[in-house]
Amino acid sequence: MQPLLTARQIHEGDSYTIAHEPISSVDLMERAAKAFVKAFTEHYSNTAQSVIIYCGTGNNGGDGLAIARILNEQEGYHKVSVKIARFSEKASDDFNVNLQRLRHTEVPVSEFKTADELGLESAEIIIDALLGNGLNKPLEGEYQKLVHQINEWKKTVVAVDVPTGFAGEGEIDSEATMIKAELTITFQQPKINFLLPESKYALKNWLAVDIGIDGEFTQQLNSPYQYVEESDIIYMLKPRERFSNKGTYGHALIVAGQAKTMGAALLCASACVQTGAGLTTACIPQAGLTALNCYMPEIMAIVREGNGTPEIDWSKFSTMGIGPGLGKDDSSLALLTAILTNYTKPVVVDADALNILAEHRPLWACVPKGSILTPHMKEFDRLFGEHKNWWQRTQTALQKVQELQICIILKNDYTIIATPEGKLYFNSTSNAAMATGGMGDVLTGIITALLAQKYTPAEACIAGVYLHGMAGDDLALPNKLMVVLPEKVTAQLPASMGALMAKKISGF
Ligand SMILES: NC(=O)C1=CN([C@@H]2O[C@H](COP(=O)(O)OP(=O)(O)OC[C@H]3O[C@@H](n4cnc5c(N)ncnc54)[C@H](O)[C@@H]3O)[C@@H](O)[C@H]2O)[C@@H](O)CC1
Ligand SMILES: Nc1ncnc2c1ncn2[C@@H]1O[C@H](COP(=O)(O)OP(=O)(O)O)[C@@H](O)[C@H]1O
Ligand SMILES: [K+]
Q1: Is 137 marked as binding a ligand?
Q2: CB-based contact 31:211 (threshold 8 Å)
């Protein structure tokens, strides 16, 4: 896992690295500037382009000065220039050192004291090194004017560390003034807010570059915010073993579907099979039985007739996934109530089962500890009340998982997984081609299958969300511009999972 840190913790990480590597702060700045330049030149490789770097007078500005020198002297960008916003008397020591160093190069440097002094900008690319992680209040005054001005030019802007005016954590005010950057090259780790939807006001794309901050130190800060990486999933995966049989991999029950929404049940149950559950039974309406048998003969059925609740032998099942296409009528309520009051092992609750829960609060007390709720944003707000923004949702999720001792999967780009020990895991796979009906049903099937195979609830959530997104990434066109169908994601699962398991077995 990569810990995602607050601005204060990032500063602590920088200071610790400076003191213990040891490295001088100006050398760390040099390393950061080099890492930025490497990524920048890979994306904007035409050295004949004119590049202007707008620098503040703190360390973000210091980075900008070092970047100007390195681009010019080491990378051959001869049309690089620098403009320094002298909005205050203060300047950091490393800024001053880098200004001296820049004076020995051919890079033209000018300074301005008010945004009004600026004429039209002719450079093709603007590098934003005005303010970084040191932002301590929303932009106002000259900074606000300058950022408005830069945004109005509608040039390609590349931000150093964070777009000026964008706060790395906390509620994002969509009205706040922020640089709108085409690319943000950030140091060491994405900032927490890069992974929330409102970041789209300031960031189109981001990438993180390693600047050698002490990893052991940042791990022991024990941040509640974590970014899931492939190696975490490889570590969790349980490849099939010799001499195992279907009983080894659990028996999952998928409770889903109505006559008109049988597709949801089929997508969910088939994903459960493809994720490796030893046995999968689907509890479906009579009307869907033929469809089920034709769609995937591996799935067994418990048939729901009329409005009655079917007999279920609770002891037979390792886990259950409930909700896709289930509807919210009285028979669905009765079935969900029967499950939650009779079954004590963790279950996966999705879609209509979540909507029933939202409308019947007394049922919450019956949800088995360790269960997994998989709401998208609207379902989340139905369950826990309206939220003004995603930061608020993350904080509610953190509070609710601890209160109810459950896991919550808040679905999105960078799906967020909240676990009862008070952690938020941000997923790093999936893409917009997956934004299509039925994709969540597949996810529920995957997570149910992992629970059946004795993954802990937290592992089932983290690995399930990752694998779902990975299969979608493996299938999407390189530009991610067209849809990937849920059925195809399901069919891809064994290959995607198998590839990770092969890495595990071969020691990578
Ligand atoms: N040694 C280090 O600590 C490293 C820092 N690095 C760079 O340093 C940056 C952080 O530098 P700083 O802490 O100097 O902070 P910034 O350069 O982000 O900001 C400079 C100063 O501006 C002032 N300020 C904050 N918000 C303002 C606002 N809304 N309006 C007007 N002024 C405002 C603050 O006094 C702040 O200290 C990082 O984003 C990164 O780019 C990198 O060089 C890596 C190493
Ligand atoms: N833009 C996107 N980027 C990444 N993943 C996405 C995107 N849109 C949807 N997904 C994924 O697809 C799934 C959609 O779930 P959901 O909204 O419940 O779909 P449905 O109810 O139609 O099955 C989630 O796992 C979500 O993370
Ligand atoms: K910046």
Answers
A1: yes
A2: yes
